[in-house]
Specification:
Blueprint (H helix, E strand, L loop, with lengths): L28 E3 L10 H12 L10 H15 L8 E4 L2 H12 L5 E4 L5 H9 L3 E4 L3 E3 L4 E3 L2 H9 L3 E7 L11 H13 L3 E5 L28 E5 L13 E4 L3 H13 L8 H12 L1 H28 L3 E2 L7 E5 L7 H11 L1 E5 L10 E5 L4 H22 L1
Parallel strand pairs: 1-13, 3-4, 3-7, 7-8, 8-9
Antiparallel strand pairs: 2-10, 5-6, 9-10, 11-12, 12-14, 13-14
Keywords: Lyase, Pyridoxal phosphate
InterPro entries: Aminotransferase_I/II_large, Class-II_PLP-Dep_Aminotrans, PyrdxlP-dep_Trfase, PyrdxlP-dep_Trfase_major, PyrdxlP-dep_Trfase_small
EC number: 4.4.1.13
Length: 398
């Protein structure tokens, strides 16, 4: 059964959608903010409509069905058992990350991130008056992917000023799905230097074969482990539900969980339930039809990515970084572009709105991030435009 539907027309009519807010014109392609052009799975849509049709949206609470749905998902997807009390709800992954930073560090402390990385990581650290400590990822040209600089990471973890490591797993924007060995190495280093891990795993379900996502808390092989791990996730990417502003934390250590929950409770107006959240999450995680939609979604995303990689590498000198997960592809334009001004110039010529690498730091000014969660028609058009402008540029360079 084909359940996946995509809006084939550019969604200019959805003026409230963040991705299309900066509307340039009918012939522009919008490949920016990380949400998709795919309609909700019918199962979730019907459940939400039924709730609204019931006639009220009064105050609600996080009931046991919601906890159980998350528990069931981790058992089904990752063969991992959760206790209901290990799950804490909040208003989005970034809100929960902020709570973790506030709880387990003080102003002036260092928070380690692995760059290039999702820009709000830097923003929330700086907003909370902590220091951004960069553990820069290393590009492996043979494997065409990024890897962790473990030597540098250990040096950063040694420093007593640095209290927290924030992990992006799978990684936005470079598309890495960290192996179990890599995650175990991180775990052992954090344990050695008595630090805390906050792992943003919102992309956990957007992973392509033969890769496998390993939740960070699953690295705790010993039930008596003293490594504090805060694993954050949501259905935002899995079922295209970012607008619900919901996320959850999984914290197995009781002491860490209590401290985290107390800080969250102090922000009670940020920690109450959106009545539609429970409906959507329970439907997405429990309904067999929703799971079938999710499988179709993964297949469509993989088809889009493969087309981008094959065509750009065939017709241009653009380096397409391997995407093992997420629906974002990180493109190296350094053959054509000296700086961010060149990147902007070529994207404008192609009439493509994308996330330019300069947003991730000066050293990434020759890169661009493309969101490929859209109809194949738009993917084909995007690739054709990039091929056209860069092929012309190559001719001029000669």
């Amino acid at each position: 059964m084909k359940l996946l539907e995509c809006n084939r027309e550019l969604r200019k009519e959805l003026h409230e959608c963040r991705r299309y807010h900066d509307y340039h014109g009918e012939d522009w392609l919008f490949m920016t903010v990380a949400d998709g052009d795919f309609k909700l799975t019918p199962a979730i849509r019907e459940a939400l409509i039924n709730k609204v049709d019931a006639g009220n949206l009064v105050y609600s609470y996080f009931d046991e069905q919601l906890y159980q749905a998350i528990k069931n998902w981790y058992l089904k997807r990752y063969n991992l058992e959760l206790k209901l009390e290990e799950i804490i709800h909040g208003n989005g992954v970034m809100h929960l990350m902020q709570v973790g930073i506030e709880t387990f560090s003080a102003p002036g402390d260092g928070v380690i991130i692995q760059t290039p990385v999702y820009e709000p990581f830097l923003e929330v650290i700086e907003h909370k008056k902590r220091k951004v400590i960069m553990n820069k990822l290393i590009y492996n040209s043979k494997a065409q992917h990024y890897e962790i600089d473990f030597k540098d990471l250990e040096e950063k973890l040694k420093d007593p000023v640095n209290k927290i490591l924030i992990l992006c797993s799978p990684h936005n924007p470079v598309g890495r799905v960290w192996t179990e060995t890599e995650l175990q190495n991180i775990y052992q280093l954090v344990k050695k230097y008595n630090k805390i891990i906050i792992s943003d795993e919102i992309w956990q379900d957007i992973v392509y074969q033969p890769y496998h996502h390993h939740p960070m808390f699953s690295m705790e092989k010993d039930s008596n482990s003293d490594v504090p791990i805060i694993t954050l996730s949501s259905q935002g990417k899995t079922y295209n539900l970012g607008g619900l502003q919901y996320g959850y934390a999984i914290i197995k250590d009781p002491e860490i969980r209590i401290k985290f929950a107390e800080m969250l409770q102090a922000q009670i107006h940020y920690a109450s339930n959106n009545v539609l959240t429970s409906i959507a999450v329970c439907s997405g995680y429990n309904d067999p039809e929703a799971y079938e939609w999710y499988q179709e979604y993964l297949s469509a995303l993989w088809t889009n990515y493969q087309y981008i990689k094959n065509e750009l590498e065939k017709h241009t000198k653009i380096k397409v970084i391997n995407s093992e997960g997420t629906y974002l592809v990180w493109l190296d334009l350094s053959f054509y572009c000296q700086d961010d001004k060149d990147v902007t110039k070529y994207l404008n010529q192609a009439r493509i709105l994308a996330n330019e690498g300069i947003d991730y730091g000066q050293e990434y000014c020759q890169f661009v991030r493309i969101n490929y969660a859209t109809h194949f028609i738009h993917i084909k058009s995007c690739v054709e435009r990039l091929v056209r402008v860069f092929s012309s540029s190559e001719g001029e360079m000669k």
